[in-house]
Amino acid sequence: MSIPRVIIVIASSLDGRIAFPGGGESHLGSEKDKKMLNQHLSMVDATIFGLGTLIAHQSTYLIKNLNGNDEVTISKKQPISIVASNSKKFNSNWEYFRQPIRRWLISSSKIDNSSNNDFEKQLFFRRFME
Questions:
Q1: pLDDT at position 11
Q2: Residue 114: pLDDT band by 50, 70, 90 thresholds?
Q3: How far is 17 from 60, CA to CA, in rounded Å?
Q4: pLDDT confidence bin for 100, thresholds 50/70/90
Q5: I need a labelling partner for 87 at 20 to 30 A (CA). Which of 12, 65, 68, 106 fits?
Q6: Do 115 and 92 touch, CB atoms closer than 8 A?
Q7: Is 27 helix (H, G, I), strand (E, B) or coil?
Q8: Are 28 and 63 in contact (CB under 8 A)?
Q9: What is residue 2's predicted lDDT score, i.e. its pLDDT?
């Protein structure tokens, strides 16, 4: 029997955010950084991020096949994309809901199933009293 492994890849700026505090999308630095992120994400089963990052980017990073002749294609194998949010501020027009990925939601509140937000699974937890 193989021993399960947990691989954690954290993409963060020095202040601990992917997006700027006032909103707007930030970008990874060099091409080397992007290749390293692509390589590491190709080894994971799932990614998780919060609604603030989704609002800023309106998409998730897709793993790319980097061919030797500078041709880049989107990999058919993508990790499950998990959004952690207690908010219902999803917009079905975001590119995220058109990307070729499996989407899960972790939340303490159910979202309206009549919306066009395509989450394959919705995992709910009960919040503890503070």
A1: 64
A2: very low
A3: 15
A4: very high
A5: 12
A6: yes
A7: coil
A8: no
A9: 82
